[in-house]
Structures are given as structure tokens and as C-alpha cells.
Backbone:
């Protein structure tokens, strides 16, 4: 019976993956109940293409979705979509963003603050683990794009550092 259930679970997960692709979804989470204290939790997700570009200029290191090079008019487009901004700091995972080390404490950074490479910008909680998000480069925080306690997706822009 266990072997049949394992085969059925594999078929179920494959069907979820097909559903994910067919409906152009990025993530799908399902809990299948078999009985009391017996269930299957499945999360199927699709990773988008991410390109990391590093330049000799300290403010030019980027971790953002792939985009073709644009003419000098690009800053206007970057303001329209923060993920395309050259100073965007993107989320390395899915989770909940926290701007301070604990409730009621001062935020790690604020708009206008000068940060150094490696300094903690925020925490993203994923699966009950607090993950410190370091600054990828030194600079000044120009915009904070997420609210304290808000959910974030993989690759979502968190803040702009120039």
C-alpha cells in the first residue's frame, strides 16, 4: 500500500508541475490530507532567469532579472520598474521581510542612510529561520520598497542603493 501511495504522490506532484506550467504560475502550494496525522505538503515553484552583473564601479553591481542594455534614457525606465534599477537589491528567497532585528527596535537602515558592503539591510524570515540580507555594495539607501512584515517573493526588489 505504501508503494502505491508513493506512486500516486509522484503522479500528483507531476500533475501539479504541469498545472504550474500550463497556467503560467510561479508557485503552487497544496496540502493533501490522508487521515489523522497523515498528510502530504507540496510546494512547487518555478525560478525565473536571474542574471548577476558586476562592474568596476561600486554602485553598478546588480542582481536583477535579465534585461537588454538600454540607451542613456534607462533611468526613467528604472524608476517605473524598481527591479530594473541598477541599484536594486533583490530578495534571494521567498519569505517575510522585517526591517528591524525585533519588534519595537530601530530599523536596520532608513532612506538616506549610508551603508557599507555586508551591512545588514533587513531580515527575511523563511521557514522560521531569520536570514540577514547584507548590502551587496556600499552606498546610500535611496528607496525602501517593502514594508515591515510584508511578504516578499524571490527576485522581488527590496530597496535601491546608489
Residues:
Amino acid at each position: 500500500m505504501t508503494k502505491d501511495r508513493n506512486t500516486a504522490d509522484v503522479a500528483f506532484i507531476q500533475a501539479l508541475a504541469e498545472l504550474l506550467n500550463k497556467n503560467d504560475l510561479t508557485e503552487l502550494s497544496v496540502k493533501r490530507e490522508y487521515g489523522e496525522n497523515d498528510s502530504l505538503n507540496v510546494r512547487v515553484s518555478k525560478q525565473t532567469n536571474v542574471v548577476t552583473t558586476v562592474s568596476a564601479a561600486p554602485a553598478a553591481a546588480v542582481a536583477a532579472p535579465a534585461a537588454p542594455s538600454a540607451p542613456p534614457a534607462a533611468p526613467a525606465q528604472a524608476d517605473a520598474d524598481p527591479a530594473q534599477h541598477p541599484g536594486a537589491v533583490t530578495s534571494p528567497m521567498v519569505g517575510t521581510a522585517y526591517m528591524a532585528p525585533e519588534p519595537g527596535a530601530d530599523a536596520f537602515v532608513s532612506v538616506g542612510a549610508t551603508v557599507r558592503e555586508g551591512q545588514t539591510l533587513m531580515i527575511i524570515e523563511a521557514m522560521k529561520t531569520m536570514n540577514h540580507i547584507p548590502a551587496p555594495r556600499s552606498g546610500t539607501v535611496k528607496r525602501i520598497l517593502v514594508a515591515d512584515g510584508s511578504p516578499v517573493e524571490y527576485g522581488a526588489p527590496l530597496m535601491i542603493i546608489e
Summary: The longest strand covers residues 27-35. The helical segments are 2-22, 74-80. Confidence is low (pLDDT under 50) at residues 49-79. Residues 50-161 form a domain with the OB fold (Dihydrolipoamide Acetyltransferase, E2P) fold (CATH 2.40.50.100).
